[in-house]
Design brief:
With 854 residues, this protein is of the alpha+beta class. It has a six-stranded mixed sheet, with helices on both faces. Helix 12 packs parallel to helix 13, helix 18 runs parallel beside helix 21 and helix 19 runs parallel beside helix 20. It is built from 21 helices and 35 strands. The longest helix has 81 residues.
């Protein structure tokens, strides 16, 4: 085997006698000798690799050339000679000119791949060229746009400089004209204070001396006396002499003094707005006076005040009058002016659905009747089967018209809820059970409806029961001046059955008829106004308020003010928990987004911005706190009254912390507990609010020793652990009956027991014996009843009680006995008392303590 150099750079295997089998060389090697210092040298082998460059024409020719047939070659000698060759030689392309054997040619797949790679390269090159052109065009547009902006800015700058130059020229011309006018006026007017002409030596002294010739002003001096640097000065190249800034200022002051009016100026009278309280400094600012002058005036009047002191509106009004200004009194309540709009025009009013309130005695079927109308089942969701929340719903009558219903509780503790329902309603449906008749809460509902001056429709319920007599109900209503139509009256009546759903259509027809008579209308194109029916704190949604829109339309995003709370309406839900975007008149909705749960019965309105909403709520909150403080002070009275009350009777308090699910329930519980109080024991509600029981509630209970009551709410984990650690009891209730009964039992236990005396008998002292060890012993005879050992006794002398105590000994003859009956004689001794005389009467009695209850 030997190296050969082929002129065509092809690696072939040739068979012949001239040369042995070989592989073409691709590397030329040689030696180079390197020289170092101190005569050292080193030989280095240098290899030169030859690179083969294939042009597209050669590649096409090689692909077009057919593969040459391989001649039959004996395998054994070739294998023997090719043993030293590397295991993976690269086969060169066939030589079309020589007679060699081609080891390998390109396959069709490789050819397709090469063509595809070439096409992809061409596509990428075209895409890059297109992107470069687009980028170049974008840069050209940006350069052109920037050039236009610079040109526009330069034009504006030139225009502004020209305007400023023109204004400066006009100002300078006006000043020069004013100076010339003032100089002419001063020259024409004779000076009355000028001295008389001087004579003789004085005249000679008065002749002005010739001044030395001044040197011409240089450019430096001119620059020093120039005025402000303006555009005109900068463009003017002349070195003319100008006035300095100080000279110009003094000149303007002289002109101002000459043109100022002579004599005192008239004082400007201002209208000063006075709130309830104001500081002296603020009052001085509003009058445009000095606070020192006001303080000096007050000191003359004998009042030592500082500018930062607060004075009331009356004193402020006196000060304003004294300084010659006018007064306009305002109050904090003026922030609510314009909150509720005035009455609308008749042309803007449209018909609205009626608002119907269902009222009646407890367990007479009010909620069941409403469930039958709505085809729902609300009553099963109420604890104990009684309604303890006020709810608002909408129902469609057979004609498709909407009717808004408000369901109120019937229990005696929910009187405030029923009053609120009667105040916001148009029609009252008085539900009376046919088997019970008129009950106490039925009478209360009638009174609420009369106070609100709303019509009543009587619904006689439970007609499905056997043996009921609706005539008895009609007759009972006559006692309360309710005359139904069947008895020649003007009050509509319907016999219904909520359980069987009978005559419900007649009830709806009666409501529609009554609403047509009332002609209910409202203006929907107005900012919303209405009333809060109920409010609660929801764990996942925060404060939720059930409101009834009475006027206008409430929209998502409106800023609502309700009592002392405000917020933006983030979401609105109807009575079926469907989200809505608007709510018109007589539509009940649940509103989410208020800062807190307002009080049930508060009016709400939509304001224009958050600042006004915050101002109104802050005023209301401040007024509420002041009212509570005044109530506490009035109830507490002075120190002398407190001492007298404490001496007269010792009042025991039962402190409680109440947390409920809705505001109406909390109010009902607080009112019911307050009614339980007497002169001796009282339920003290430390805190009452909606929402779950928190750790702060437990902290308040620990500090005051109060019990925590949860009505349809629960305590969180932290509150439970804190209460258990401190030994505070948390009681949960879902029915108001049980809650009131338990608190009543606790309060009854604090009442002092009733003391009763049981008369046993009388004994008369016949003789008194003095015994050394026992003291004086009275020998008595029982004249009435009996005498028992250990009983209480009174010593009566001349019909006056001398002593009251207990018997120490009771003997008959020499033996101790338990009792001695009438007609027998015995010996008696008193404990720690020995002033016994013959003829005294001893009264014997027992004391019995009886527990009291509320």
């Amino acid at each position: 085997m030997s190296d050969t150099n082929n002129t065509d750079d092809e690696k072939t295997l040739r068979v012949g006698a001239a040369k042995p089998l070989s592989v073409g060389r691709t590397v030329d090697s040689g030696q180079v000798r390197q020289k170092f210092s101190h005569g050292r040298t080193r030989s280095v082998v240098v290899e030169k690799k030859r690179r083969r460059i294939v042009t597209p024409d050669e590649a096409a020719k090689q692909e077009a050339a057919p593969a040459a047939p391989s001649p039959a070659v004996p395998t054994a000698p070739i294998a023997k000679q090719a043993a030293p060759v590397s295991p993976a030689p690269v086969a060169p392309p066939a030589d079309p000119k020589g007679s060699g054997m081609v080891l390998r040619s390109l396959t069709n797949e490789e050819k397709d791949a090469r063509v595809q790679a070439l096409n992809l390269a061409k596509e990428r090159e075209a895409e890059d060229r297109r992107r470069a052109e687009e980028e170049r065009a974008r840069l050209d547009d940006d350069d052109r746009r920037r050039a236009e902006d610079r040109k526009a800015a330069e034009d504006r700058k030139k225009e502004e400089e020209g305007r400023l130059q023109l204004e400066e020229e006009q100002r300078v011309a006006a000043e020069q004209a004013a100076v010339e006018e003032a100089a002419r006026a001063a020259a024409d007017a004779p000076d009355p204070d000028a001295p008389a002409p001087a004579r003789g030596r004085e005249a000679k002294a008065a002749v002005p001396q010739k001044r030395p010739e001044q040197r011409p002003a240089t450019r430096r001096d001119g620059d020093r006396r120039k005025g402000r640097l303006t555009l005109a000065n900068a463009l003017n190249q002349e070195d003319g002499r100008e006035r300095s800034m100080a000279a110009m200022r003094r000149h303007r002051e002289r002109i101002k003094k000459q043109t100022a009016p002579q004599g005192p100026q008239a004082k400007r009278v201002r209208e000063v707005v006075l709130p309830e309280t104001i500081t002296i400094k603020e009052l001085a600012d509003r009058m445009a006076e000095r606070a020192v002058d006001i303080v000096r005036y007050l000191m003359k009047q004998g009042q030592m005040l500082k500018p930062s002191d607060v004075i009331d509106a009356d004193l402020a009004e006196i000060l304003v009058d004294e300084f010659g200004h006018t007064v306009k009194r305002v109050t904090d309540a003026d922030v609510e002016v314009g909150l509720f709009a005035e009455a609308d025009d008749e042309a803007d009013l449209v018909s609205r659905p009626p608002v119907v309130t269902i009222m009646g005695h407890v367990d007479h079927g009010k909620t069941s009747l409403l469930d039958a109308l709505r085809e729902t089942d609300v009553v099963t969701g109420e604890a104990g089967g009684i309604t303890q929340h006020i709810g608002a719903y909408q129902v469609s009558d057979p004609s498709g018209k909407k009717i808004t219903f408000i369901d109120t509780p019937g229990h005696a503790a929910f009187s405030e809820m029923r009053a609120r329902g009667a105040n916001v309603t148009d029609i009252v449906i008085l539900v009376v059970a046919a088997d019970d008749g008129v009950m106490p809460q039925t009478i209360e509902a009638i009174n609420h409806a009369r106070v609100a001056e709303v019509p009543i429709i009587v619904a006689i319920n439970k007609m499905d029961k056997e043996g009921v007599d609706p005539t008895r109900v009609r007759t009972d209503l006559l006692q309360h001046e309710i005359v139904v139509e069947s008895m020649s009256g003007d009050v509509l009546e319907v016999e219904v059955s909520a359980l069987k759903k009978t005559n419900l259509d007649k009830l709806l027809d009666a409501i529609s008829l009554q609403s047509e008579v009332l002609e209910l209308k409202a203006n929907p194109d107005h900012s919303a106004e209405g009333v809060v029916v109920e409010a609660r704190l929801d764990k996942g949604r925060g404060p939720v308020s059930t409101i009834l829109v009475q006027r206008g339309t409430l929209k998502i995003g409106d800023i609502v003010v309700a009592g002392t709370e405000w917020g933006r309406a983030r979401a609105m839900l109807d009575d079926h928990d469907n989200q809505i975007k608007t709510a018109g008149p007589s539509v009940p909705v649940e509103v989410l987004g208020l800062s807190g749960a307002p009080l049930a019965g508060d009016s709400f309105a939509v304001v224009e911005n958050e600042a006004r909403a915050r101002e109104i709520t802050e005023y209301r909150d401040r007024a509420r706190r002041e009212k509570q403080t005044a109530t506490m002070v009035t109830a507490r009275g002075g120190l002398e009254d407190m001492m007298n009350q404490s001496k007269a009777v010792q009042i025991s308090n039962v402190p409680v912390v109440i947390k409920g699910d809705v505001q109406g329930s909390v109010e009902a519980i607080s009112g019911a507990l307050n009614k339980l109080g007497t002169d001796e024991v009282n339920a003290q509600v430390l805190h009452a609010a909606t929402g779950g029981i928190t750790e702060s509630d437990v902290t308040l209970a620990i500090a005051s020793g109060a019990a925590i009551i949860g009505f349809n709410v629960r305590a969180n984990k932290q509150a439970r652990e804190a209460a258990a650690q401190a030994g505070i009891e948390i009681r949960y209730y879902s029915v108001i009956y049980d809650l009131v009964d338990d608190i009543k039992a606790i309060m009854s236990g604090l009442l002092s027991p009733e003391i009763r005396e049981e008369f046993l008998g009388n004994a008369k002292i016949l003789e008194v014996f003095d015994i050394s060890k026992l003291g004086k012993i009275a020998g008595c005879t029982i004249t009435e009843g009996k005498v028992q050992r250990g009983a209480n006794v009174r010593l009566i002398r001349d019909d006056v009680v001398i002593h009251e105590g207990e018997l120490s000994t009771l003997k008959r003859f020499k033996d101790e006995v338990r009792e001695v009956v009438s007609g027998q004689e015995c010996g008696m001794g008193f404990e720690k008392y020995h002033d016994l005389r013959e003829g005294d009467v001893i009264e014997c009695f027992n004391v019995e303590k009886i527990a009291r209850s509320l």
